[in-house]
Specification:
The protein is α/β, with parallel strands linked by helices. The chain folds into two domains: 4-174 and 225-253, 3-Layer(aba) Sandwich (Rossmann fold); 192-224 and 256-324, UDP-galactose 4-epimerase, domain 1 (Alpha-Beta Complex), CATH 3.90.25.10. The chain has helices at 13-24, 57-66, 81-86, 88-109, 142-161, 192-200, 228-243, 261-272, 296-302, 311-324, and strands at 4-8, 29-33, 49-51, 69-74, 113-119, 164-170, 172-174, 207-210, 222-223, 225-227, 249-253, 259-260, 278-281, 290-291. The strands form four sheets. It has a seven-stranded parallel sheet, sandwiched between helices. Helix 8 (261-272) crosses helix 10. The longest helix is centred in the first third of the chain and has 22 residues, at 88-109. Bound molecules: uridine-5'-diphosphate. Uridine-5'-diphosphate binds next to helix 6 and strand 8. InterPro entries: Epimerase_deHydtase, NAD(P)-bd_dom_sf, UDP_G4E. Its EC number is 5.1.3.2.
Amino acid sequence: SSPCVLVTGGAGYIGSHVLHALTDAGIPAVTIDNLSTGRRRAVPGAVPLIEGDIGDASLLERTIREHRVDAVMHFAGSIVVPESVSNPLAYYRNNTVNSLTLLDTCVRLGVGNVVFSSTAAVYGSPERVPIDEETPTVPINPYGASKLMTERMLRDAGAAHGVRSVILRYFNVAGADPEGRTGQATPVATHLIKVACQALLGRRPALSIFGTDYPTPDGTCIRDYIHVSDLADAHVLALLHLRRGGESLVLNCGYGGGASVHEVVEALERVSGERVPATLAPRRPGDPPQLVAVADRIRERLGWVPKHDRLDDIVRSALVWERSLDHPAP
Ligand code: UDP
């Protein structure tokens, strides 16, 4: 049988989109997820879901052997920045220590291909935008630091043991599968587009717009929003690159453009014809005014061509998904 990719965190937001993309491409996969934030129903029916923790080396070992795994895509982890500030050691355990266990198991069993979910948070608050991959990595919170440590382990293990990796540094991931198969399902979300959809649907109080006095054209922060399905395609291409024997890469995942908070709200109102209840609020600590990727390298190295790179498409798919969730009224 053909080799199989082990996807950690396949029941979560981004991991589940990647499982669907792999399944669509006919690539066998298996996932380990502890279902702490993920949902069983997000996993495609054809993909075995093993409920368990990636800190469990013997579970990893059994899974890799039984499923003839030749590659790992590593999504499992914690992603809430303020939580990482109040509970840093939990972040180092879940993101860094568990990644060490996973990587160590890969080295021991000869699994030589790793695609890793990293983040633009490794850049901290850079002096210059747009941000290319050579920008110094100076994370400003434990979340970014916990991911950067894993990047470093991958680099060092690559040099010492020949493990090859594609490190994908995500900018602002948003939207949902255009076929409605999966989306961002955790009700306690903090990300702008999710929160704005919830506010529009009356599922939470008004959106707070954090900061209107930034040095940007309309005073609100600018981010590089990337559609989760385009990001999922990038993962499939990264896997194929490694399976072809391609070299290790570090790649920004964004479109190289930006939208402000006001522009996101306007897009949502345009596609829905409804108002987003919103109030102007003070700045949120730790938010840099602009985070926009230089996103040429991923196109050049992987031949990635985004298909959903219009803000209206991103917010529309997020809203369609949000409507499909049955949440109790607030
Ligand atoms: N934001 C906002 N209200 C919210 C959530 C986010 O105004 O309820 C702003 C936030 O200040 C930032 C942008 O939206 O400027 C994106 O924030 P998000 O948390 O989605 O992603 P981040 O860039 O922090 O990873």
